[in-house]
Amino acid sequence: MPGRAGDDYVAFVTARQGSLLRAAYLVCGDEHLAHDLLQDALVKLASRWERLRDEAPEAYVRQILYRDAVSRWRRTRREHLVDHQDPGGELARLRTSEPVEGWVEGAAVRQALALLPPRQRAVVVLRYYEDLSEVDIATTLGISRGTVKSQASDAMRTLRSLLPDLDGWVPRVVRDQERGSA
Questions:
Q1: Is 126 exposed, middle or buried (0-12, 13-18, 19+ CB in 10 A)?
Q2: Contact criterion met (CB below 8 Å) for 27 and 122
Q3: pLDDT(85) > 50
Q4: How far, in Å, CA of 66 to CA of 117, rounded?
Q5: What is the pLDDT of residue 76?
Q6: At what angle do helices 145-162 and 134-141 cross, to 10 degrees?
Q7: Per residue in 98-135, pLDDT tens?
Q8: Of 70, 71, 85, 151, which one is least surrounded by beta carbons within 10 A?
Q9: What percentage of the chain's residues is helix, strand, coil (to nearest 5)?
Q10: What domains can be seen in the chain, in order of their start residue?
């Protein structure tokens, strides 16, 4: 990528790398994997930069991040069976009486997010961290809007059971949708 295109790519990566890395980490829950996901997505972007630089390069990178995270989880899930019965009492340790402030930064919330299936985790991160609409989430993940709604509802129900104080944080519109009144 010679000349101006290369300079534009470097400027894009420099400006967006931190935000993209945080999003990747929230989706996969592992710092090293987040770096790998971001690197793979940026390599894919570089090969398409000429075509995408004037369109939506960040949306493209995020789409790759989330889809690759879900794909990696599916592959590794087959390799490593996880015991979801919580033999070590991990769920009890996640419960906290502290108010949920700055919830993305909270260690308990990160741990709770890590317990969600990858698609639910991706939906939660896109919805509440990235502040995307249901339509944008559906496009990013390649799923229907109805699937976005059901995955968000299931994820928030699980997060509320793990972190009861989270209930006060959940936007009213989500609670209304879960009750069927929206």
A1: buried
A2: yes
A3: no
A4: 12
A5: 63
A6: 100
A7: 433 444 446 777 788 888 998 899 999 888 888 889 99
A8: 85
A9: 75, 0, 25
A10: 1-82 (no CATH), 91-182 (1.10.10.10)
Residue 136's nearest CA partner among 59, 84, 74 is: 59
* C-alpha to C-alpha distances, 112 to 26, 81, 168, nearest whole angstrom: 11, 19, 16
Alpha carbon distance 182, 178 (integer Å): 8
Host H or E run for residue 178: helix 172-179
Q: pTM of the entire structure? A: 0.59
Calpha distance 112→128 (Å, rounded): 15
Helix (H, G, I), strand (E, B) or coil at 168: helix
In sequence order, what DSSP letters do the residues of 134-167 get, joined into one string? HHHHHHHHT--HHHHHHHHHHHHHHHHHH-GGGG
What number of residues does the chain have?
182
- Residues with Cβ within 8 Å of residue 159, at least 6 apart in sequence: 109, 112, 113, 116, 124, 166
List the one residue out of 109, 114, 140 whose CA is nearest residue 127.
140
Q: Which residue has the tokens 């741990």?
A: 111
User: What whole-number distance in Å separates Cα of residue 70 and Cα of residue 62?
Assistant: 12
Q: Is the pLDDT of residue 178 over 50?
A: no
